[in-house]
Hints:
Elements: H1 26-33, E1 38-41, E2 44-47, H2 49-64, H3 82-96, H4 116-148
Antiparallel strand pairs: 1-2
Helix pairs in contact: 3-4
Amino acid sequence: MYSPAGDLTAAPADIPGSPDFTNPDFIAQAAGRARIRCYPVAGVFVGDDDACSATLLAVVQLQRRGHPVTLLVTETTGALSPTFDHALRALGKHARAPTTHDSTRYGLSRSSPHTFLAHHRAAISAAVVLADATTILLAAPAMSFKLTMGMSPF
């Protein structure tokens, strides 16, 4: 849990980040009681900017050990970076090949996307919108608290 303004002493003891976090392993217990500054939501890191940048860098460094990593950038408007668009188109072409089985579950309604590219663009855009909404919902209580205390919310 990360809260720059909130009191987390009432957080349940089974949640990492709680000051009362318990674990039979003392090392894991100490790590679990440390303040969590960044966590994943819908594939996006949310929390303190510096902590999220460091976490993303660590993930990329781990994945680069023997595996190529490509940055895929998207916006809440549905816009995709050219690299992301190219990757999705290539995967869609591969999914249409006669020797490939596409196990994607497409919607049954007439308004549902029925192609690999349209379906996955919509799903990715929805995930980004969810992450943005979650960020706003998590930041609102801290901003409200600061305003109540007469402090600047930023």
